[in-house]
């Protein structure tokens, strides 16, 4: 398993409430662009700090079990921290369950459309700072599912994937009843009800994923069990995927998106490795 570096200056103690990152204020994005006509078919862009050459866009795909009550704003601290490191960043939004157009298939088609359109939109909005290379995706939880789904079904639009505690097996997540029926809300029911939807949307059914992928998961995650990532990475590698797992002992679900957490140096180190390989 690779030993990804992390900068010592980023090390922090884990906050008392790991969920605090979800509501922590962050600097406002530099601008918002639309990739479609719906109000949620948008992305917030952040200009990279400093000066330097154009770099591949980093697209942050937020989690929240695809539900309408969670939106891109909770990834503001992560996105701002990445921009401070010199990365051009887009926080993509998408229609979610519980709102018109969300669920099957709108949530998935929005993710594909946004990821495909954002490099050009960001290059126009941030001249000289975004290269023409396919973006690196950072997806957390349900956003990790969408990032893996995009890499599997539209590989030309994805340059690399950093999947943070992803919901990588929708059928297993349905059986485990993660977040009280979240997968059923996304796909309309269970695998026996809609086998074609699961076959089309479940990363476990879509391997191999040729795009370079690193999965990072905490060992004490109570929202998405780490066993799901372990099993997925084993299956994906056996199928020929370019994928690896970084398991963080003692880390829970939300520390992976918190720049003030002890997990952050490892997350940042993996991103740097993906960027260098890109």
Specify the CATH architecture.
3-Layer(aba) Sandwich
**Rg, alpha carbons:** 17 Å
CATH superfamily: Alpha/Beta hydrolase fold, catalytic domain
Largest sheet: 8 strands, mixed
Distance between the termini: 19 Å
How many β-strand stretches? 8
Strand order of the largest sheet: 1-2-4-3-5-6-7-8
Strand content: 5-15%
Helix and strand pattern: EEEHEHEHEHHHEHEH
How many alpha or pi helices? 8
Q: Mean of the pLDDT scores?
A: 93
CATH fold topology: Rossmann fold
Report the top-level CATH class.
Answer: Alpha Beta
- Uncertain spans: 1-15
- Helical content, roughly? 25-40%
Report the structural category. Answer: alpha/beta
User: Which shape, going by the Cα principal axes?
Assistant: globular
Total count of domains? 1
Protein name: BD-FAE-like domain-containing protein
InterPro entries: AB_hydrolase_fold (IPR029058), BD-FAE-like_dom (IPR049492), GDXG_lipolytic_enzyme (IPR050300)
Keywords: Hydrolase
GO molecular function, one term: hydrolase activity
What does this structure look like?
- It comes from Micromonospora lupini str. Lupac 08.
- InterPro entries: AB_hydrolase_fold, BD-FAE-like_dom, GDXG_lipolytic_enzyme.
- One of its GO terms (molecular function) is hydrolase activity.
- This is BD-FAE-like domain-containing protein.
- It holds the Pfam family BD-FAE.
- By secondary structure, the protein is of the alpha/beta class.
- The protein has one domain: Alpha/Beta hydrolase fold, catalytic domain (Rossmann fold).
- 32% of the residues lie in helices and 14% in strands.
- The protein has helices at residues 76-84, 106-125, 142-153, 170-176, 182-187, 195-201, 226-238, 264-277; strands at residues 31-34, 42-46, 58-61, 89-92, 136-140, 160-164, 213-218, 243-248.
- Strands 1-2-4-3-5-6-7-8 form an 8-stranded mixed sheet, with helices on both faces.
- Helix 2 (106-125) crosses helix 3.
- The radius of gyration is 17 Å and the shape is globular.
- Residues 1-15 have low confidence and may be disordered.
């Amino acid at each position: 398993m690779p030993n990804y570096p992390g900068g010592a200056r980023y090390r922090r103690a884990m906050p008392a409430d790991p969920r605090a990152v979800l509501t922590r204020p962050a600097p406002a994005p530099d601008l918002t662009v639309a990739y479609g006509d719906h109000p949620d078919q948008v992305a917030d862009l952040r200009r990279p700090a400093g000066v330097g050459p154009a770099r591949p866009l980093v697209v942050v795909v937020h989690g929240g079990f695809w539900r309408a009550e969670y939106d891109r704003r909770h990834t503001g601290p992560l996105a701002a921290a990445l921009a401070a490191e010199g990365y051009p960043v887009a926080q993509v939004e998408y229609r979610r369950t519980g709102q018109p157009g969300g669920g099957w298939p709108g949530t998935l088609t929005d993710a594909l459309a946004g990821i495909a359109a954002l490099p050009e939109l960001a290059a126009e909005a941030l001249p000289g700072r975004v290269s023409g290379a396919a973006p690196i995706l950072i997806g957390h939880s349900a956003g990790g599912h969408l990032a893996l789904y995009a890499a599997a079904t539209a590989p030309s639009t994805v340059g690399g994937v950093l999947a943070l505690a992803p919901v990588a097996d929708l059928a297993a997540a349905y059986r485990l009843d993660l977040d009280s029926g979240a997968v059923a809300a996304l796909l309309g029911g269970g695998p026996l009800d809609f086998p074609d939807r699961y076959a089309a949307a479940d990363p476990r059914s879509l391997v191999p994923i040729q795009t370079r992928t690193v999965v990072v998961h905490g060992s004490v995650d109570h929202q998405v069990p780490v066993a799901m990532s372990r099993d997925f990475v084993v299956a994906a590698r056996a199928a020929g995927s370019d994928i690896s797992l970084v398991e963080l002992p003692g880390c829970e679900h939300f520390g992976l998106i918190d720049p003030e957490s002890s997990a952050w140096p490892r997350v940042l180190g993996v991103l740097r490795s993906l960027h260098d390989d890109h």
